[in-house]
Amino acid sequence: MDLLSPEDRAAIMTRPRAAERRASLPILGARPPLLAARAEDHAVRPFIAVWEITLRCDLACRHCGSRAGLPRKGELDTEEALDLVRQLSELGVREVTLIGGEVYLREDWLVLLRAVRERGMLPTVVTGGRGMSLERAGAAKEAGIHSVSVSVDGARATHDRLRGLVGSHEAALEALRNLRRAEVPIAVNTQVNRLTMRDLPAVLDTISAAGALSWQVLLTVPMGRAADEPDVLLQPYDLLTVFPLLEALAIEARARGIDFVCGNNVGYFGPHEKTLRRGLAYQHSGSCGAGLTTLGIEADGTIKGCPSLATDSWAGGNVRDTSLLELWERAPALRTNRDPPELWGYCASCYYAAECRGGCTWMADSLLGRGGNNPYCHHRAEQLSAVGVRERVVQVQRAPGQPFDRGRFEIVEERL
Q1: Is 265 exposed, middle or buried, given 0-12, 13-18 or 19+ CB atoms closer than 10 A?
Q2: Which phi and psi angles does 186 have, rounded to 5°?
Q3: Taking a C-beta distance cutoff of 8 angstroms, is the pair 367, 409 a contact?
Q4: 118, 89 contact by CB (below 8 A)
Q5: Is residue 316 within 8 Å of residue 306, measured between CB atoms?
Q6: 364: how many CB neighbours lie within 10 A of its CB?
Q7: 325 FRET partner, CA 20 to 30 A, in 87, 149, 209, 293?
Q8: How buried is residue 224: exposed, middle or buried, by Cβ count under 10 Å (0-12/13-18/19+)?
């Protein structure tokens, strides 16, 4: 099953990558004043913190939202990072996922892993795997790592094209082998887009043979380098083809003993939800968890409600200036999802509006410049199809070339 014609696929696979345009990382500007904490701000605490410990990377993936490669200026030093671990524990965080860039390129990554474990939180890592040697895997095991998720985006040719390096697919598989030898529980994460979709059954075969315990799928979002190649992204109407495939893969993965997990931008409320979200209490998608169950941290100490959201609009402040607790409870950018949702467009009149609240803020904001109206919704695509309509997103402004940047897209309605 392929969403691309052979000619279109060949053209995309062989197209040179867009030139990098950024010279330096943006500096976080002044933030809105902190607000008085309310009862609801005291009541909610993040379950998971996703922490970019460095933006330095040994890959330059063509769908990377942060445009990782160079480290940030002023990344937290070891002492500052360890103090942040303390604050995370005191805030009630139960799991800390270290991401990059590439985690192992920060010299003290094992120190941070060990500190997270010693504070009673579960330390996990997401990696591209290029340099996850047996020695590094063993050291992570000794430091108390709970699990490692390796990114596998399609079969060899597709993965290497998206990751921007021939041999990166084999490196990811070698990382899985090394982690398994070191007795580290392994998971896999996979981006779903027009290039990878046809490879998903092959990915399942590959990760099953590698001994993966979990497989998370998420839609590629038009942020960073992914915004440079809009024809790689799914269209909203593609979800009508994608979701039945994901349901079949979920059933097959679980039959092989692999936990199948949908990312927060895979939804919402369509007929396959009971299968896709089997592990959730209500067996359907939830709303955006930014500032409710999730906390995002950038390498320089900038705090966001979700690690994927754009810094310029969604940063609440920096732990060098304000305590983590104060930012969590009082920063306006982190409190957005604790207030009534500001829905617009189709989402404002949807039957599931009160529960869904517009779905993934990251997807909507990256497309349209604000949350509250997300065309990447299976229920929405089905409802529109029933009346002979589909939605297509069209890029009308390119991304400027900064980490976590966005272009601008418009939604076009078309008759089927």
Answers
A1: buried
A2: -115, 145
A3: yes
A4: no
A5: no
A6: 25
A7: 149
A8: buried
Compute the half-sphere exposure of residue 341: CA atoms within 13 Å on the CB side of its CA: 26
Structure tokens at 299: 């390498």
Please compute, for residue 314, the number of CA atoms within 13 A of its CA located in the half-sphere on the CB side.
25
- pLDDT tens digits, one per residue of 195-247: 999 999 999 999 999 999 999 999 999 999 999 999 999 999 999 999 999 99
Q: Contact at 8 Å (CB) between 188 and 219?
A: no
| Tokens of residue 58, six digits | 């040994």
Cis peptide bond prior to 101, omega within 30° of 0: yes
Q: Measuring CA to CA, which residue among 168, 220, 167 is closest to residue 195? A: 220
Q: How far apart are CA 174 and CA 222, in angstroms?
A: 29
d(CA 16, CA 124): 34
CB 345 within 8 A of CB 55: no
Q: Residue 120: exposed, middle, or buried by beta-carbon count in 10 A (0-12, 13-18, 19+)?
A: exposed
pLDDT interval class at 277 (50, 70, 90): confident
Using DSSP, state whether 238 is helix, strand or coil: helix
DSSP H or E stretch at residue 318: strand 315-318
Map tokens 């601008």 to a residue.
408
Of 176, 248, 246, 256, the closest CA to residue 208 belongs to 256
CA angle 134, 52, 157 (to 5 degrees): 60
pLDDT, one tens digit per residue, over 318-328 is 999 999 999 99
For 360, what's the count of Cα atoms within 13 Å in the CB-facing half-sphere?
A: 24
Q: What are phi and psi of 153, to 5 degrees?
A: -110, 80
Chain centroid, CA 259 distance in Å = 18
Pseudo-torsion of CA 132, 166, 61, 102, nearest 10°?
A: 20
Distance CA 260, CA 244 (A): 14
CB of 311 closer than 8 Å to CB of 26 = yes
